[in-house]
Design goal:
The protein is α+β, with helices and mostly antiparallel strands and 454 residues long. It has one domain: outer membrane lipoprotein receptor (LolB), chain A, CATH 2.50.20. Helices cover 15% and strands 29% of the residues. Strands 12-11-10-9-8-7-19-18-17-16-15-14-13 form a 13-stranded antiparallel sheet, sandwiched between helices. This is DUF1329 domain-containing protein. Pfam families: DUF1329.
Length: 454
C-alpha cells in the first residue's frame, strides 16, 4: 500500500504544481492569435455580419494627428440609425438596463447614434506576448483576489477567462501604454447645465518601464498615479498620490494626500472603494474612476457570459480639440450628438456585495469590450436593489501609441438628475504626453509637497 500511497501523493503534487504553472492548457492558449485575437476576443465576426472579423486594428497612419489628438479615421461615416425614446423598444435586447433607464429619465434629449462597427483595437506585439504568457502562468490566489506569477508579465492576467473575477482582472491589468502625463478636466454640472471645470494633472508611471525602479522594491506595484488639481484657484494645489498594488489583500493600495491649505501630507485610506471621488460633488466614489479600479475583494463576481450590445466606441468626435467643454457638457447628460455607438461583443459580469462587506453599491452590472477588456458600461444599484447610477466610458483607439483611451467617462445619477464627467482634454494645448519619463522619486510622499505648491 505504501508505494501506491506514494504514487498517489506524487500525482497529486504534480497536479497541484501544474495548476500553479498554467492558468489554461497549452492547447487552449494556442487559440490566442488564431481563432482568438492575441488578447482573447473572438477573431471572427458574428453570423449576421453586423460585427466584422478583427483583422489587426488601425494602422499608425490611420488619420492625421494634431498636437497629440487623434484624427477621426471614420469622419465620413454617418449613423446607421439613431435610438431615441420613441424607438428604444425596438433595440432593447441590445441595450443595458442602464441605457434603457437613461431613455426613461431623459426621453426628450437622450439619444444613441449607432454607426457601422469598426474593430479598431490594436496593441503592440509586447502586449500580445504578455497576454500569451499570462494565459499559461498567471494564477488567482486568495480566493481570486490576488495574482500570482504575474509581476513580470504586466498585462492581461487572464486572456481566456473562466470566471467573472478574471474578467474584472483583465480590465484592471489591461494595456495602458507608456508612462504618461496629461491634464484632464472633470465637471459636475448642475441640473440646469451650469458647471465649473476642474483641471487635474494626471501623471502615471509603470515600474517596469521606469529606469530607476528596482524590481525588489516595486514587484507588487501595478502602477503609480499622482493627481494634482491645478484649477479652479480655490482647489489648486491639492495632490493625491496612489501606489496601486497587485496583491491588495496582502498589501492594500497605498495613498497619500497633500492639502494645500494645511500644507500637510497625510495617509489617505479613503482613496479606495466607496471613498469620495476627487472633486466629484458626491456624484462618484473612488472606485468609479477609470470606470472601475482597485481591489475587487468586496464583491462576489458572477460571469453571465458574452452578448452583443451597443456601446460607446471610436469616440474620436468626442475627443476632438475643435470642441469646447461647453459643447459637451449639457443638462442631464453629455451632448449625445457628439457620441458614437457601435455593436460589439462584450463580457457581462455581475458583482454582488459580500455579506458583511461595506460599499454604497450593493450590485454592479458590468460590460467589458471583448477586444480591449475595457469596462465600457456599468450599472450601479443601491442597497434597496434600485438602479442608481449609470456609467458610460467613451473609448477611442490611439493608433499611434497602439492603445485604448477614454475620450470621456460619464457617471449619471438617475435619482439626483445630475452627473459627473471626467477624462476630458479637448481644450488642452496638446494631447496625452507619452514621452513622459518620471523617476520613482516623483511618486513618493516626500514629492507631494513640491507638487502642490501654487
Amino acid at each position: 500500500m505504501k508505494p501506491i500511497r506514494l504514487l498517489l501523493t506524487a500525482c497529486t503534487m504534480t497536479l497541484m504544481a501544474s495548476s500553479v504553472i498554467a492558468a489554461v492548457s497549452e492547447e487552449e492558449a494556442a487559440k490566442l492569435g488564431t481563432s482568438l485575437t492575441p488578447v482573447g476576443a473572438e477573431k471572427a465576426g458574428n453570423t449576421e455580419g453586423s460585427i466584422p472579423a478583427w483583422t489587426g486594428g488601425l494602422k499608425a497612419d490611420a488619420a492625421p494627428v494634431q498636437n497629440g489628438f487623434m484624427g477621426d479615421p471614420y469622419a465620413a461615416e454617418k449613423p446607421l440609425f439613431v435610438i431615441t425614446a420613441a424607438n428604444v423598444e425596438q433595440y432593447k435586447d441590445k441595450l443595458t438596463p442602464g441605457q434603457q433607464a437613461m431613455f426613461k429619465r431623459y426621453p426628450d434629449t437622450y439619444k444613441m447614434p449607432v454607426y457601422k462597427t469598426q474593430r479598431s483595437a490594436v496593441m503592440p506585439q509586447s502586449a500580445y506576448d504578455a497576454a500569451k504568457k499570462s494565459a499559461l502562468t498567471t494564477e488567482a490566489v486568495n480566493e481570486g483576489y490576488s495574482l500570482k506569477n504575474f509581476d513580470q508579465i504586466h498585462y492581461f492576467a487572464f486572456p481566456i477567462p473562466k470566471t467573472g473575477l478574471q474578467v474584472v482582472w483583465n480590465h484592471l491589468t489591461r494595456y495602458r501604454g507608456h508612462n504618461y502625463i496629461n491634464t484632464q478636466v472633470q465637471a459636475t454640472p448642475q441640473v440646469n447645465g451650469d458647471f465649473t471645470p476642474v483641471h487635474i494633472e494626471m501623471a502615471s508611471g509603470f515600474p517596469w518601464i521606469m529606469k530607476d525602479a528596482k524590481p525588489q522594491d516595486t514587484s507588487n506595484i501595478l502602477f503609480f498615479v499622482k493627481q494634482t488639481v491645478t484649477a479652479p484657484a480655490r482647489m489648486a494645489g491639492n495632490v493625491t498620490l496612489i501606489h496601486e498594488t497587485l496583491d491588495q489583500v496582502a498589501e492594500p493600495r497605498m495613498a497619500w494626500a497633500y492639502n494645500a491649505g494645511q500644507r500637510r501630507v497625510r495617509r489617505a485610506p479613503q482613496v479606495a472603494y466607496d471613498g469620495p471621488g476627487t472633486a466629484s460633488d458626491g456624484l462618484r466614489v473612488a472606485d468609479n474612476a477609470d470606470m472601475y479600479n482597485g481591489a475587487p475583494d468586496r464583491y462576489d463576481w458572477k460571469l453571465v457570459g458574452k452578448k452583443e450590445i451597443y456601446i460607446p466606441y471610436n469616440s474620436y468626435k468626442l475627443q476632438s480639440p475643435s470642441l469646447k467643454y461647453k459643447d459637451i457638457i449639457q443638462p442631464g447628460h453629455i451632448n449625445q450628438d457628439l457620441t458614437r455607438y457601435e455593436l460589439h461583443r462584450v463580457w457581462e459580469v455581475q458583482g454582488t456585495l459580500k455579506s458583511g462587506a461595506r460599499h454604497i453599491y450593493a450590485k454592479r452590472h458590468m460590460f467589458f469590450d471583448e477586444d480591449t477588456w475595457t469596462a465600457v458600461e456599468i450599472d450601479h444599484y443601491d442597497g434597496r436593489g434600485q438602479l442608481w447610477r449609470v456609467s458610460e466610458g467613451h473609448t477611442y483607439t490611439d493608433y499611434v501609441q497602439q492603445l485604448t483611451a477614454f475620450a470621456g467617462i460619464a457617471t449619471y445619477d438617475l435619482m439626483a438628475g445630475r452627473y459627473v464627467v471626467s477624462n476630458l482634454g479637448n481644450e488642452n494645448k496638446k494631447g496625452i504626453d507619452y514621452a513622459y519619463q518620471p523617476s520613482v522619486n516623483d511618486f513618493t510622499p516626500a514629492a507631494l509637497r513640491n507638487a502642490g505648491i501654487r
